[in-house]
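so my prof wants the structure for this chain in the tokens format not the other one, which i didnt know existed until like an hour ago. anyway here's the sequence
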Amino acid sequence: MGFDLSWRDLILLGGGVFLIAKATHEIHGEVEANGDGSAREGRVGASFFWIIVQIIIIDIVFSLDSIITAIGMAKDLEIMIIAVIIACIVMYMSSGPVARFVVTHPTTKMLALAFLVLIGVALVADGLHFHIPRGYIYFAIAFSVAVEFFNILARSNRKRP
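here's what i got, hopefully its the right format
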């Protein structure tokens, strides 16, 4: 039919659909929360393993494009493996401070989930051979982060005596 799907395309499609589904599920959970948080607190300990698995899957999906680019740039497989391992270590080390920031500023969680939907759509589009220029995506993310920064600044200024 004139449309070839490579393994790369299938991985991008699967990763994009996973990100869209996961972010949509989390957004729905945030919107439909009953406010007392008791049901969510009970699930946190039980689902820690699945959270780690999902982080690893998301990290692999995000790293895939970089790995494919690295294959074209670096011929040494060991260097690529070391780079991915270092990226994973940095991500895991920064997860605590990021989690504390999100707890302190809950609107950033919704913004991050919206970014995941945006990135998921870009991955699906790439998997279907429709390229969305990354500049548009980066601009949308940067603009949203700037707006959230000013919202956080305004909220902290309102809390001061």
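also thought this was worth mentioning. The two ends are 67 Å apart (CA to CA).
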